[in-house]
Amino acid sequence: MSNHESLGSFLRDSRKKKSISMRALARDAEISVAYLSKIEQDAANPTINVLERIATALGVPVSDLAMFIRNREQDVDVATASNTPESLKRFIEKYSKDFPQLLDPDYHRALSGIRFRGKYPENDSEWLNIFLSILNVLEK
Length: 140
What we know:
Elements: H1 7-17, H2 22-29, H3 33-40, H4 48-58, H5 62-66, H6 86-95, H7 105-112, H8 124-139
Helix pairs in contact: 2-3, 2-4
């Protein structure tokens, strides 16, 4: 298929060979330019759904992209990650059935990085307000 070392280099080269801008590919794949940039830099691990949309937008078989997917077992296990605050672990455990996005590694990383004056939110209500605000922004 390809002699590329990573998904990012394959995507970047495929996009450039077809003279497709990042903005156009991101639009056609229904993702942000920033997220596409992270994927091309191998700084993001996209879901199969995102890979399917990118493959369709690029006009390449999804199997060409799927062979680059990192082993999902390497993804963060929300319940045991040592850098996850206890209050976030409790929130995710309590609300993941209602909001399956909480199990997505990208949401987990985003929430794990939230601090105000050096402190994590302390209770479910604070986490829920933050999470719902993030969802609200992403749905627009």
